[in-house]
Amino acid sequence: MVVREILPGISSVGVIDWHRLAFDDLMELPDGTSYNAYVVQGSEKTALIDTVEAGFDEEYVTNLIRAKLDSVDYIIANHAEQDHSGALPLLLELYPMATVVTTEKGKDLLCSMLLIDDERILVAEDRDSLDLGDKTLVFYSMPWVHWPETMVTWVPEDRILFSCDLFGAHLACSSLFADGSSRLQEAAKRYYAVIMQPFRSKIQEYVEQVESLNPAVIAPSHGPVYNNPSAILSLYREWSSDEGKNLVVIPFVSMHHSTKWMVERLTDALIQRGIDVRPYDLGTSSTGTIAMDLIDATTIVIGSPTVHFGPHPKAANIAFLTNILKPKARYAAVIGSFGWGGKTVQTLGEMMPKLEAEMLEPVYIKGKPGEQELVAITVLADEIYKRHQDNHLV
Ligand SMILES: Cc1cc2nc3c(=O)[nH]c(=O)nc-3n(C[C@H](O)[C@H](O)[C@H](O)COP(=O)(O)O)c2cc1C
Q1: In tens digits, what is the pLDDT along the chain, a chain of 394 residues?
Q2: Probe ligand 1: pick from 253, 266, 307, max atoms within 8 Å of CB?
Q3: Which of 23, 95, 109, 347 would disulfide-bridge 80, Cβ 3.0–4.6 Å?
Q4: Which residues form ligand 1's pocket by a CB distance below 6 Å?
Q5: Verdict on whether the full-model pTM lies above 0.90
Q6: Helix or strand holding residue 344 (H, E)
Q7: Is this complex scored with an ipTM above 0.95?
Q8: Non-local CB neighbours of 204 within 8 Å, separated by 6+ positions
Q9: Record's PROSITE patterns (predicted)?
Q10: Ligand 1 center from residue 248 Cα (angstroms)
Q11: Distance CA 217, CA 225 (A)
Q12: Which domains are assigned to the chain?
């Protein structure tokens, strides 16, 4: 690993995990990830910002040796999750005089999850600051990005914000700074979709707060550093906004093609009405990709046959995921096919209580859909069109 200077006295000392394939078993990682950690050297004191995932301690400590740190006064724990605090126990052994700085809730989590001695921890209240000499650390409490204890650290002299997971991206890449590539944008969007989306209203608030600081650099805890943060700020504004796009997402599963034929008919009907549509066969689709489309979708249609009196488990899984991600969609519907009876439509609806969407009339048919049944699909397409029109989307 290498130590890379961001600004005089401020360097990146984290590690790149090129080969990781999944995170939290919640999302697949097509491009690996990084565990970013930083050092801030003031004229009098030195602080480390976050650490790395346990198991990467050796690479991390090698970086600290290469950064030639004589001593460390503070270790700032913006976020207690183990991918950023995993190396903290080792670091506290290495620097016995160092004090950990975190929020009150961060203290509780670090003590319980990493068995850190609470006497080593200094609690930072919102807007508390620490003087490093010619640099200052100011702590802003920002709970729920994406745990309850999160905070960010601001260095006003350099206008750099260490934003923990906010603005993060699971992307292993050799460049330190964001290059504006579509690969980075997709990684940042996937990260937002799965990790930040449930806290959308908080994110709106925090984006405004960060913009008011007018940062020159945003250094998140995963992915590249933004030395021109306006692009990521404007993407976050767009993703967290209340306005959806002219997009219908249709995650579906079909064992014997009946539901699939209905999805195909709905897809065609929506295209004919000028609506963007993305059908996802749940047998082969990645949940991270569907989650990304949920950021933009105004309407979600779940397609499921009845299996053992209820939804197919893959459809139930996506309904559960939709419920916990709380996307901004305003309309939802269930379509599918059954043989003799069950509670699929009701169960799927009940599985999404957090979705603040109007449930449209379901299209749920017995067996193979004939032309007459497929007319109901056209009616559903008309209903969706009307609503998208009401929202000035078509
Ligand atoms: C394992 C299995 C369990 C099923 N259980 C039910 C059921 O409980 N109630 C029902 O109405 N149909 C049930 N069916 C029938 C399907 O819902 C029906 O064949 C439907 O048309 C399949 O739609 P698809 O072609 O989209 O998979 C079951 C089918 C399978 C294969």
Answers
A1: 689 999 999 999 999 999 988 877 777 888 899 999 999 999 999 999 999 998 999 999 999 999 998 899 999 999 999 999 999 999 999 999 999 999 999 999 999 999 999 999 999 999 999 999 999 999 999 999 999 999 999 999 999 999 999 999 999 999 999 998 999 999 999 999 999 999 999 999 999 999 999 999 999 999 999 999 999 999 999 999 999 999 999 999 999 999 999 999 999 999 999 999 999 999 999 899 999 999 999 999 999 999 999 999 999 999 999 999 999 999 999 999 999 999 999 999 999 999 999 999 999 999 999 998 899 999 999 999 999 999 999 9
A2: 307
A3: 109
A4: 254-259, 305-309, 337-342, 367
A5: yes
A6: helix 344-350
A7: yes
A8: 237, 240, 241
A9: FLAVODOXIN_LIKE
A10: 25
A11: 7
A12: 4-240 (3.60.15.10), 248-387 (3.40.50.360)
Residue nearest (by alpha carbon) to ligand 1 atom 6: 307
Q: Could you tell me if 349 and 334 are in contact, meaning their C-beta atoms sit under 8 angstroms apart?
A: yes
**Ligand 1 centroid to 307 CA: how many Å?**
5
